[in-house]
Amino acid sequence: MHIDLSDRTAIVTGGSAGIGRGIATTLAESNARVVVADVTRDPPTDADRTTVERISAEGGDAEFVETDVADGDDVAELVETTVDTYGGLDVLVNNAGISHEGSVVETDPEEWQAVLDTNLTGVYNGAHHAVEYLKESPAPRIVNVASQLAFVAQRRKPAYVASKGGVVSLTRSLALDYADVPIQVNAVCPGVVETELTRDALADEQRREAFESQTPLPYLGTPADIGAMTTFLASDYARFVTGQSFVVDGGYLAQ
Fold this sequence. Notes:
There is one protein chain. The chain has helices at about 20-30, 50-55, 70-85, 110-135, 160-175, 200-205, 205-215, 225-235; strands at about 10-15, 35-40, 60-65, 90-95, 140-145, 185-190, 245-250. β1 (about 10-15), α1 and β2 form a beta-alpha-beta unit. It has one domain (about 10-195, about 220-250): 3-Layer(aba) Sandwich (Rossmann fold), CATH 3.40.50.720. Strands 3-2-1-4-5-6-7 form a seven-stranded parallel sheet, with helices on both faces. It is of the alpha/beta class. The longest helix is centred in the middle third of the chain and has 26 residues, at about 110-135.
């Protein structure tokens, strides 16, 4: 199976680092034109190239648009810039997300709202502003990045867990609303993935051993693993797939 996304344009929110960067680069490897949207262009460490630089170095076509997905006006401008630059939009990947640790009592209303605004309202904003342009695409796709924590809770992460559960439900709703176009709408739900955001936790030997012992496969995930599933869902091979949430977690939820 060879996936070729030539002549298709994709937006990847939260694409400057981690899972978003893995998704953006994997889409580009399949010849998609990629618009990387994030609150910052810069990679997590000075030694790293930006996502756009990585894609361009491999001969791909990518642009960066500074975007806060919690801001509807920002997202509207992102979509309009993409369409103006490339002539249309075919794939929207709603990946941007933040987290907060603390019980519901320890979580201030502002902290709760910030997580919901980015993780859930950000998906709404993306779909709200992109759907009319996606309708013009011959193969429109929306892929929302949720989490395995949409299905199993974790202590001290009420806002994050609630937001990702909402993403899964919103994915189903969008899939039904736009099935007649058709716009295929699906979610990818990562498990433990080695990224800049998890580096500190995984550097702790005890925590790493705990994550590894809970994952049936003998290794943790990488951003490229999430990119591969996302690229499949963006392709013609997923033409009969919509409203589904694909857990990519090394078998954790199979237990």
